[in-house]
Design a protein that fits this description.
The protein is mainly alpha-helical. Helices cover about 75% and strands about 0% of the residues. It has one domain. Helix 2 packs antiparallel against helix 9, helix 4 runs parallel beside helix 8 and helix 8 runs antiparallel to helix 9. It is globular. The relative contact order is 0.18.
Length: about 220
């Protein structure tokens, strides 16, 4: 992905209007159509998890198709990525539910329970009770699988990267979620307006997809043997 230093540069890319419009849809949904903020943030969190899962074979293919050093590195980097990226996702998921739980406690008087902070339990419960969220996740997985098979493998994009650079590829999404939680937590809890979290997420996600350099995490290139 091309990287840009300023918003002006990013907005001049041909698909800038499409990126901004697509990220404005959740904001409009919450403002005008009664969409709930929590499922939207949970969907983005699940998207991070799915993106990370598909990055595992990408790391392996990017390394094993190169020289011996890269091949060994890819095998070592996979468990590191699972632990490191997975830990970020786990903590972010806990904070997302904690943010909304505290807001409900303060503004609606709903007392939290031990299940309020059960990340996997609440996610699976939402998938069971919210058919829109469930089918969105199913569609997400199908799109990710198709993209991986057709564009990444079939298009031989693995030739354009190496194991360690591929390791860092999805971390821009982690930056977006991290900043969303950092910026939105206090306003959501104090003001009791979850819309702020959706707005922050939409703005930061637009910056990531527009290619703003601030949201890109690039790793060094692994030396050849």
């Amino acid at each position: 992905m091309a990287r840009f230093n300023t918003i002006g540069e990013a907005l001049r890319r041909p698909d800038a209007a499409w990126i901004i419009a697509s990220n404005a849809i959740p904001v409009a949904g919450v403002l005008f159509f009664g969409w709930q903020a929590l499922p939207l943030l949970v969907f983005y969190w699940i998207e991070n998890v799915v993106t990370g899962a598909f990055n595992l074979p990408k790391i392996l293919v990017a390394g094993l198709t190169k020289d011996k050093v890269q091949g060994i590195a890819s095998v070592v980097l996979v468990p590191f990525f699972i632990l490191h990226y997975g830990l970020f996702c786990f903590v972010h998921g806990i904070f997302v539910f904690a943010m909304f739980t505290m807001s409900e406690t303060i503004h609606s008087g709903v007392a939290p329970t031990t299940d309020s902070f059960d990340l996997t339990g609440r996610v699976f419960q939402m998938l069971q009770t919210d058919s829109d969220l469930l089918w969105s996740v199913v569609a997400l997985c199908l799109v990710q699988a198709g993209s991986f098979a057709v564009f990444w493998l079939g298009g031989r994009r693995w030739r354009e990267t190496d194991a360690i650079r591929q390791l860092f590829e999805p971390y821009g999404r982690i930056v977006v979620m991290h900043l969303t939680i950092f910026i939105a937590t206090i306003p959501v809890i104090v003001i009791g307006q979850p819309m702020l979290a959706v707005l922050v997420l939409a703005l930061l996600k637009s910056g990531l997809e527009l290619g703003l350099k601030q949201f890109q995490v690039a790793g060094p290139q692994l030396p050849s043997a």
